[in-house]
Amino acid sequence: MDTPVLVTLIRLAYIVAAVLFVVGLHRMNSPATARNGNVISAVGMAIAVAAAGVDIATRPGGPENRLAWPIIGLGVVIGGGLGLYTARVVKMTAMPQLVSLFNAVGGGAAALVAVDEYINLTQHGDAIPLQASVATVLGVVIGCVTFSGSLVASGKLQGLVPGRPITFAGSQLVTAGLAFAALAFTALIILADAGVIGLPGALTLLFLALIVVAALTFGVTMVLPIGGADMPVVISLLNSFTGTAAAMAGFVINNPVLIIAGALVGAAGAILTKLMADAMNRSILSILVGGFGTGDATAGAAGAGATGSVREVTADDVAIQLAYAQSVIIVPGYGLAVAQAQHNVRELAELLEERGVDVKYAIHPVAGRMPGHMNVLLAEANVPYPQLKEMEEVNPEFPRADVALVVGANDVTNPAARTNPSSPIYGMPILNVDEAKNVVVIKRSMRPGYAGIDNELYLDPKTGMLFGDAKDALAGLINAVKAV
Amino acid sequence: MDETLLSALTVFVLAILVGFEVISKVPATLHTPLMSGANSIHGIVLVGAMFIAAVADDPLSQVLSFVAVVFAAMNVVGGYVVTDRMLQMFRRRDTARPATATERGTAATAAGTTAGSTRA
Q1: Tell me, what's the pLDDT at B2?
Q2: Residue B32 has pLDDT above 50, yes or no
Q3: 3-state SS string over A48-80?
Q4: Are the beta carbons of A134 and A190 closer than 8 angstroms?
Q5: What is the per-residue pLDDT for B97?
Q6: With 50 as the cut, is the pLDDT of residue B96 above it?
Q7: Contact A232, A251 (CB under 8 A)
Q8: Is the minimum CB–CB distance between A328 and chain B shorter than 8 Å?
Q9: Which pLDDT belongs to residue A311?
Q10: Do B90 and A375 touch (CB under 8 A)?
Q11: Beta strands in A205-277, from DSSP E residues, in sequence order
């Protein structure tokens, strides 16, 4: 067998895989090509994994480990089966926590690869090259933080861990201490491997174990104080971390396709995180510091000038308003996602369209539980995506709309973001719902939204409040519209 | 620094730049599927897990590499499937799948019948 030719072919296969990853991501630019882009990326993954399999199979004398194939085969079947099953049965509303779970196992795998490779290097007794130890400890730290952090984030979204920010006296000190400990041990290992300080091999392994423990705990204490509504940003950040950890694992085993794919995802996650944080008018740092949404920090600024009375309306009133409107803009929010009312809202919209009403959906970039999540939910309910309008596109249309129907959205409709410089959400991009001729808000209660502040939109004389769970209220509206 | 590390670093930095360039053009609508799609790509760590499994010559390494393969395979398969499920839903009402004119007509009739019977 001509090994050099085969080695070249394997390397070329890695390049092809990398190209397919980039092309696949690029095709996710537009809804029309996105699905195809995902398939292209999956083909790239299959090529990379097949090339790695050929690489292992054709090594002179076969793999060093007789158990290699059983481990790989059984692992792929079990892991792949678990992934396939969970991905197929998950409800679309529970999808963010599943993405977070997949992110956790990816980070865990990257950390394990780095740990194992480092143990091997130590045991073989050779001097460990500096780049191997730097990449290893970075891979271990990042991978472990991602693993435990993503699990907590997933648990918060699933409701297994309370979604509210969890803090205790000195919790920030503990978190900072853990970060310091992880970095200190990292520095010690790197210095030892560089020959600057002398440490016996057993001691560096102990330090590696301590890094694992510190990083795992840090992941937990980092995510616990962050409120449930900030989880998307955190998941996106951790997604970026996992990419970086995979790239580090690529440095450790010197594999280009790991480096390229990991770096791609690292960059993607970073950009997404920034976009999400911008849309929420929060800095990434303030999200990570946590504790937002507890109410105490914002109590002083709340309700400035917000006096007036709330006008409550019935489903029949609203049905008449909607049925005789020319143009209706529906503003879906977190409450709609929680109540899983996406099918009801689509049914109502179709009823109205049959009566000749022009219906659009105004989608705030952070509506739902993740950016773009609302689009997925509405798409699941068969809402044609040309009806979904992004914020910049729909804002000029509000003054022409007869009715703006707000379903379970709050802070993203609060005019204080435009008008009240003392409001904590001042400057946040919002949907200009208050410019519509009439506003109807479906909401469970007058409870403030995530930012913990009052919404003066509810006190506007042209706003009618329809209290109730989004799903029940919409069902009532559908019946009332049918009866008009 | 040796030649291998330098070329690896070059590849790393260029890939980051490509990532920024490709991602920054994606509309907000697709951010969740994109995050999920990127999430599946870092499942590439499966390749790394396979390589450490190939040289795992003691029980500890064998256990570590087995868990790594399971984790990574779950990341890859689950990631792509759930992304596909999300993207499958992004479609215009009348082009749910590439259908022939006849099929589309039948589907429209069927939809009309269902809607009619619901209303009745």
Answers
A1: 77
A2: yes
A3: HHHHHHHHHHCCCCCCCCCCHHHHHHHHHHHHH
A4: yes
A5: 37
A6: no
A7: no
A8: no
A9: 87
A10: yes
A11: none
Q: Which chain A residues touch B36 with a CB distance below 8 Å?
A: 95, 99, 102
Report how many Cβ contacts below 8 Å link chain A to chain B: 394
CB contact under 8 A, A79 and B26: no
Residue with the bigger pLDDT between A167 and A310: it is A310
Asked if A115 and A158 touch (Cβ cutoff 8 Å), the reply is: no
A411 as an active site residue: the answer is: yes
CB-CB: which of A80, A92, A363 is closest to B74?
A: A80
Q: How confident is the model at residue A449 (pLDDT cuts 50, 70, 90)?
A: low
For chain B, the domains span: 28-113
Strongest mean pLDDT among A54-58, A191-195, A214-218: A214-218
Q: Do A265 and B19 touch (CB under 8 A)?
A: yes
CA distances from A32 to A20, A35, B29 (A): 18, 7, 12
The predicted complex's ipTM stands at 0.79
CA distance A384 to chain B (A): 5
The position carrying tokens 């997933």 is A154
Asked whether the beta carbons of residue A83 and residue B76 sit closer than 8 angstroms, the reply is: yes
| Nearest residue of B to residue A73, measured between CA atoms | B69
Q: Kindly list the residues from chain B whose CB atom is less than 8 angstroms away from the CB atom of residue A139.
A: none
Q: What is the dihedral of CA A176, A181, A186, A188, to 10 degrees?
A: 140
Q: Are A148 and A217 in contact (CB under 8 A)?
A: yes
Q: Is the CB of residue A185 less than 8 Å from the CB of residue A214?
A: yes
Residue A83: the pLDDT is: 95
pLDDT tens-digit series, residues A362-405: 988 777 767 677 888 888 888 888 888 888 889 999 999 999 99
